[in-house]
Amino acid sequence: MGLRSPAAPAKIESPPEETKGPPMADANDGFKDFPRDSTPSGVGVPSAAKPTATAEKSRAERRPDTPLAASGIRSSLPERPAERDTAPVADALKEARRSLDALFGDQNQKVMELKLQASQGIEAALARLEEETRRTRQLLERNEALAREAERLIAEEQRLENEQDGLESELEKAAERNEALATRGNALREERLRLQAEREELEDAVASEQEELAKARADVERLQQRKESLEEENQQLERFRSRLEENIARLERLRDEYMTAINRLKNTKEELIRLPGEGSPTAGASSEASGA
To answer: What pTM does this model have?
Structure first.
C-alpha cells in the first residue's frame, strides 16, 4: 500500500489592492484610525489612511488665502510624513499564508502516514494471531497423533507381556520336564550300577541280560541326547528371555519418553492457550490507536 501524496496547498489569493487615500496631515495622527481588512489567514492589513479633521484643518491653514499664509508667517507644524507602502506587508502575508498551507499539508501527510502505520500494525497483529492459531492446531494434531502412538505402544507392551507370560509358563514346563528327565537319568544310573553289581553276581546270566543292558544303554544315550537337546533349548530360551527383558526395558524407556513428551506438549498447549488472552490488551491498544 503506497503512501498518498500530501494534499496540495490551497491557492493563496492576494489581497485586493487598496485605494490610496488623501495624504496625511502630520506624523502625530499615525495609523491609529486605520481600518483593517480581513484576509483568509485572519491577519489584518492596514488600509489606506483616510483624511481626518486635523488633516483638513492643517490643509486649510496652509492655503494661500488664509491670513497666516498671506502674512508670510511659516507654520510650526512638521512636514507631512511620506505615504507608507503596503506591498511588503501584503507580500509577508502571502508568504505566511503559503507557510501555513505547507504546514497544514505536512500535518495531513503525517496523519495519513500514522493511519497507514496503524492499519499495517493491525494487519501484522492479525497475521501473527492467525499464525499462532495454525501452530496451535498443528500442535494439537501432533499431540493427538502422539497419544494414538502411545496407546498403540501400550497395547504392544501388553501383548509382549502376555507373550512373556506364555514363554515363562513354557519355560517352567520345560524346567519341570528337565527335572523329571534328570531324576529319571539318576534312576537309570542307579539301575546301571545295580545291573553292574548284578552282573558281577550273575556272570552266568550275562548273555541273557546283555540284551536288556544294551537296551538300557540305548535308552540312557537317547535320554542323554534328549537332555543335551533340552539344555540347548533351555539356553536358547534363556537368551530369548534376556532379549525380551531388554526389549521390555527399552519399551519402558520409550514409554517414559513419550509420557514426558506428552506432558511437555500439554504444558506448551496451556501456555499457547494463555498467550492470546495476554495479547488482548495490545490488540485493544492498537484498535484505540487506529480509532484516534
So the answer is: 0.25
